[in-house]
Amino acid sequence: MGMKPFLYGSFYSNPAIVSNFLIRINPFASQHFELQSHSFDLADRLFYSVKDSYQSLMICSSDFKELIPEFYFFPEFLKNRNEYNLGSRQNKDIVNNVALPDWAQD
Description:
By secondary structure, this protein is mainly α. The chain has helices at residues 15-21, 28-35, 50-59, 70-73.
């Protein structure tokens, strides 16, 4: 008897995913910092771009993040108003405010 089919092989929502989306505001920045042994995660793994996150979800079967409620009512989480140093990606892009899709004006 084999394993029954399933959609998610892990929890689809967990503190690491939530703090990754909300890393630019507290208390989530502090939680992320604690989860990552007192540093921010590698810049290439941080939430950087809505478009790139969507493309990853569509291509990578192990990426199954869900949209958090803040996407619908709290756009401030997309801005790095606290000016956290979130590092630079391998392509040299600095991780700061979240890059919005082309259709978004602000």
